[in-house]
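Exercise 7. Predict the structure of Inner membrane protein YccF from Kangiella japonica.
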Amino acid sequence: MSLLLNILWLIFGGFFVSMGYIAGGIALCFTIIGIPWGVQCFKLAIFSLFPFGQDTRMAERPASQDLINVILNIIWLIFGGIWIMINHLFWGVVLCITIIGIPFGIQHFKMVKIALWPFGREIYGLRNGERLF
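Solution. The predicted structure, encoded as tokens:
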């Protein structure tokens, strides 16, 4: 079922969402200082390409990396993360208004978590629970 939903997702806009994240990641990686944020854009691109059957969770890391992740997430939030989150929140609400769009709206709500706070999050498969990215 998730294969069919992922194909429909790609046809009805998921491909363009992913390409937007890839373009943003490439643009950020052109600047030396933007590489960490570019990598997070690539993480969002992978997650937005096939969101059905995937989810995100906070990675288990040492406390020393938590402070770095918080600082990078705050910079992400100030310079664009809030707008990405609002975009996914908007499309989630719009799609959930229609009955047929509810599964796609739920995927946008899942993307809100990673769009708001991407550093320190990892993508994992729901079926086998292994880390994907």
